[in-house]
């Protein structure tokens, strides 16, 4: 028996350990089911920040893309990725390539951009044999758990992302900007408020100043919204960090983060941020066919280490403009 959208809202179950969970109708057509329940699903995301739909039977990229398009107003291209990933369609991508034995720390997708997705959609086509969950954490709760002095400083100054695009590691210029044409890359950087400099070895070094705390464009509530910990050198495995510094130098790491005034973010601060995420993290192991919807501003997400195959597609939906979120910290928006 198919649930009405009104009934669906009451069928969501909650657990302190995982995101809100909804079981789809047995044997339902995923596209038709998503179409019928779009309004209700988005209402759950608006209320809880995320929802995991189990038993939807998503099995291939084309079907996942169609469901993503049914549930969003629009999908957006991935801009400035920090690591390569496969493109299935504009707005639909493979999971970011990241070592399977290392966690991907909680963060907010494309928080370094002037336009970023407001809604993330994840489709699990092939669940891993062990681990590999996509943990989530409420960004409002994380904000309140952080030391007040730290939050105050980041609100005053914002945060700085520095990147050096090498061919050998991380995303190359072509992968990050969609072209190797220096003129096009430079125009993009100017339009996006990114300072840039080409290096003598042909690599590109960039700096972008962004807000660390935003107000949700619908609720107006303050959310911790950034990738300060995830893209910081101290989140890397020690041997990886040492190797990269040895090869490229401390000022030419593929990515690193700083306070908005340029001061380094030390290991204790990264530990405090990741500790706040850990206080509020929730996770449910993937099953093949699952769908996860995430409010990208209100809810941080990550990825656990895993074993075995894992194919999870990501959809970047409903773009939001940074200037619509009352950014603080002297952020320059081009």
Task: Please provide a written account of the structure.
- The protein is an alpha+beta fold and 334 residues long.
- It folds into two domains: 5-137 and 282-325, Clavaminate synthase-like (Double-stranded beta-helix, 4-Layer Sandwich), CATH 3.60.130; 141-274, Clavaminate synthase-like (Double-stranded beta-helix, 4-Layer Sandwich), CATH 3.60.130.
- The protein is 28% helix and 26% strand.
- It is built from nine helices and 18 strands.
- It has helices spanning 5-11, 30-48, 61-71, 139-145, 148-157, 173-177, 182-191, 238-248, 267-280; strands at residues 21-23, 50-54, 87-89, 92-94, 104-107, 115-126, 130-131, 136-138, 159-165, 194-198, 204-210, 213-215, 222-224, 255-259, 291-295, 299-303, 306-307, 311-321.
- A seven-stranded mixed sheet has the order 1-2-15-6-18-4-3, with helices on one face. A four-stranded antiparallel sheet has the order 10-11-9-14.
- The longest helix is centred in the first third of the chain and has 19 residues, at 30-48.
- It is globular.
- Keywords: Antibiotic biosynthesis, Dioxygenase, Iron, Oxidoreductase.
């Amino acid at each position: 028996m198919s649930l009405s959208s009104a009934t669906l809202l009451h069928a969501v179950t909650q657990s302190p350990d995982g995101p809100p969970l909804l079981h789809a109708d047995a044997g339902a057509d995923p596209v038709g089911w998503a179409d019928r329940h779009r309004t209700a699903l988005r209402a759950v995301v608006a209320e809880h920040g995320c929802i995991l739909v189990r038993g939807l039977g998503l099995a291939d990229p084309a079907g996942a893309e169609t469901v993503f398009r049914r549930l969003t107003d629009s999908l957006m291209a991935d801009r400035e990725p920090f690591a390569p990933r496969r493109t299935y369609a504009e707005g639909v991508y493979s999971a970011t390539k990241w070592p399977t034995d290392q966690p991907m720390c909680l963060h907010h997708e494309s928080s370094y951009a002037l336009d970023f997705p407001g809604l993330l959609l994840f489709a699990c086509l092939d669940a891993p044999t062990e681990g590999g969950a996509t943990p989530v954490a409420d960004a409002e709760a994380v904000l309140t758990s952080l030391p007040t002095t730290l939050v105050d400083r980041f609100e005053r100054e914002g945060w700085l992302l520095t990147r050096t695009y090498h061919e050998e590691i991380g995303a190359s210029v072509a992968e990050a900007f969609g072209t190797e044409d220096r003129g096009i890359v430079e125009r993009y950087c100017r339009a996006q408020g990114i300072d840039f400099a080409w290096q003598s070895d042909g690599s590109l070094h960039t700096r972008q100043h962004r807000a660390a705390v935003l107000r949700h464009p619908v609720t107006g509530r303050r959310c911790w919204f950034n990738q300060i910990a995830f893209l910081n050198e101290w989140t890397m495995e020690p041997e990886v960090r040492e190797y990269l510094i040895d090869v490229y130098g401390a000022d030419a790491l593929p990515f690193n983060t700083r306070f908005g005034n340029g001061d380094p973010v030390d290991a204790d601060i990264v530990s405090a941020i990741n500790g706040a995420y850990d206080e509020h993290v929730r996770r449910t192991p993937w099953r093949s066919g699952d769908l996860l919807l995430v409010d990208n501003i209100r809810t941080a997400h990550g990825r656990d280490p895993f074993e075995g195959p894992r194919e999870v597609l990501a959809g970047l939906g409903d773009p939001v403009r940074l200037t619509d979120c009352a950014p603080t910290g002297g952020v320059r928006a081009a």
